[in-house]
Every structure is written in C-alpha cells, then in structure tokens.
Amino acid sequence: MSEVQWKFEGGAFQESLPNGKTSGTLVVSPVSVKFVSEDGEVEMPVTGIQTELGGASNRMLFFKHPEQKGWTFFTTDQGILKHPVFAKDTRMAGTRSRVRRTRWLSRAVTFMFLGLFAALGLGLWWGKDPMAHAVAKRIPVEMEEKIGKAAFGSHAAANQLVKDEAVLEEFEKLSAPLIEAIGSTRYTFKFHIIEDSTLNAFALPGGTMAIHTGLLLKAGSAEEVLGVMAHELAHVEEQHSMRNLVEMVGLYAILSGLFGDVSGIAAVLVNNAPYLLSMKFSRDHEREADAVGFGYLMKANINPRGMVNFFETIQKEQAEAEGINMNGALSILSTHPATQERIDTLNALIKAKAGTGPYRKLGLDFEEFQGKLRDALNK
Ligand SMILES: [Zn+2]
Questions:
Q1: C-alpha of residue 240 to centroid of ligand 1, in Å
Q2: 173 C-alpha to ligand 1 centroid (Å)
Q3: pLDDT per position as a tens digit, 172-229
Q4: How far is the CA of 293 from the centre of ligand 1 (A)?
Q5: What whole-number distance in Å separates Cα of residue 136 and Cα of residue 262?
Q6: Per residue in 22-50, pLDDT tens?
Q7: Domain ranges of the chain
Q8: Nearest in space to 221 (alpha carbons), one of 362, 372, 377, 357
C-alpha cells in the first residue's frame, strides 16, 4: 500500500446501475477518490468532496461530489479517513469526530449489552426470586385470588370440605386475632378445613389456605394450630406461591411483568394455577414463612411456643410414620429445611425476642373444638 494511494472495499449508488447499486473498490489518491468496479471507473475530485456518516449504527461513510451528480460512493472502512488527504482536511474534522463518537458509542452500547446479559445470567442464577417477587407484587390482587381459587378448586373436592357451621365459626374465631394483627391491606384471608387425616396445611395465592382435619385433631393446643396458621399466612403475604408460579412461567414472564403490561402475564399464570399443587416451597421460603409467621404471633401476642410444639409433634409423627410419604408437595412437613433446624431456629428466635408473656388468653376451649370437629366428621 503506497502512502499516496490507498484502496478500500466499498460500493456505489447510482440510478443507472442494476438495483441502483454495485460493489467495488474506493481508491484514494492525493487528488481524487475513484470508484473502481467491473463496469468501469468513476472519479470524484478531493476538492469539493462531501462526506457523510450513515447506515446501521453510523458505520457507513458516504462520499458525494457536485461534479458527479447522482453518484454516491460508500465504504464501511472508516480507516479511509486516516488517509493523509482527509487527515489534513479541516472540513473532515466534523466527520472524523463523529466517527470517533460513533465508535465510542457503539463500544459503550456493546459493553452495556454485555453487562445486561451478564446481569440476566446472574439474575437467572441468584436473582430469580427477587425478580419474581417484583413481578408478583405487580399482579392485581383479584388476579391472585382467582389463581388461588382455581388451584384450590382443582385440589379439594367440595365434599372434602368441612361445612359444619359450629366448627367453622369457632375456627374463624381462632384465627381472628392473628389475621387482625397482620392487618393486611391486600388480602382477605380464608382458612378452609379439609377432611384428610394427614398432618398438613397449605397456602395458595390470594389468601386461600387450608388445614387438614388430621392436623387439627393431632394438635395439642390452639397455639399449635395458630403457629401453623401464622406460617401459612406468611406464605400468602410473602407471595411464595405467586413467586414460584412466576418463576415457572419463566424469564419472559418476569421481563414482561416487570417492564410491560401485567394483564397478559396474569392470564398465563391463571392457566398454570393447577401446577401450584405440585410445587414445593424452597428452603428459603420455608425459613422466611417461619420467621415472618413468628413475627405475626408476636404481634398478636400469641405464645410462639405453640409453633415449636407443633414442629415437635411433626417430628415425632415423622419418626413413627417412617416410610409413609409425609413430604409431598404443598406439605408443611417439607424436608427442606429439616424439621430440627426449624425447631432450633424458632427456639433461638423465642429466646431472643419472645420474653415470658403473659400471652393472649384464647377464648376457645380447644379440646371442645376438637370434639365438635370429630362429631362433624362422624355425621
Ligand atoms: Zn410452609
């Protein structure tokens, strides 16, 4: 490559060309820019030549000259501006600095995208839950209720629900102080009683929760049941099911839920509601439900030892019923985290925060309630 004549890959536009365009080489000499192609040559004098940036991300450089009307040369090789002819040309200073700016900008944009991708990757790895939570918070509560009711409907047959009015009335009285203490502005909480001998309770989106008769009859005190209720209420308030569902539906949902219209994603979530029944809460969600639930008990001035006692009952039951699957989906007996770990954590919380009472006197004879429940089941 000589100092005075450089060649650059490029092309030219002109009406008479087939498709109005052809490719070739731009040859720059001290006096002219010449376009050379199979079909011939066209030359523009350096004096009076006009340059312009354009094309995708300003990567193309165009040349025009009044003496070659209708012709436009172009190249994506911006090295052409380093040619001594242009380097010295003060009229080119604007174009040159625009090129530099464009380069800098495109580099910045590239880095930004790389950064975004890295963040998304990392997000998938450790930030999925916070993102899912941010989306869940934006879902209208009516939609969440619909999802919870749809899931509940596909789980519990109507004839499995305990409908005895006396039992339900006392059951509601039992949960009232706890629900009052939470003072949720978003949810209307509803505990159902399901006729099922397993020791279980579960929470669905929107405030729908259920406790099995097996658990109610096995519990040693009202405080134990309230401990379970507090845990389930925390699952609802913290939107654990919704977060699971959003995560399941995927990244697309997360992004459109965060940045777009949530109504579209909400419809997808409703369709997927039945999957909630086969989802387990993560270790972290269980821990959070225990800790937040403990806070509810404190707020309602309910003895939190009931919660620990219930976990101990579970532990005993697990030991006795070894081999029986007690760890199914939605199960409060989830193995993660291990029951012993949960007991230890709660005991530490009680030691640090609970004090010694006196606690709220519950206006309910629990044994009498259990008797009524037993009677209702035998009807
Ligand atoms: Zn749980």
A1: 9
A2: 23
A3: 999 999 999 999 999 999 999 999 998 889 999 999 999 999 999 999 999 999 999 9
A4: 10
A5: 9
A6: 999 999 888 889 999 988 899 999 888 88
A7: 6-103, 139-378
A8: 362
pTM for this entry: 0.64
Task: Give the Å distance between the CA of 202 and the centre of ligand 1.
Answer: 7
Return left, alpha or beta for 183; rule: phi > 0 is left, psi -120 to 50 is alpha, else beta.
left
Separation between Cα atoms, residue 28 and residue 5, nearest integer Å: 5
The CATH code belonging to domain 6-103 is 2.30.29.30
SS (H, E, C) 31-76: CEEEEEECCEEEEEECCCCEEEEECHHHCEEEEECCCCCCCEEEEC
Q: Which residues of 260-281 are buried (b: 16+ CB within 10 A; e: fewer)?
A: eebeebbebbbebbebbbebbb
Give the Å distance between the CA of 61 and the centre of ligand 1.
63
Q: With contact defined as beta carbons under 8 Å apart, do 298 and 178 qualify?
A: no
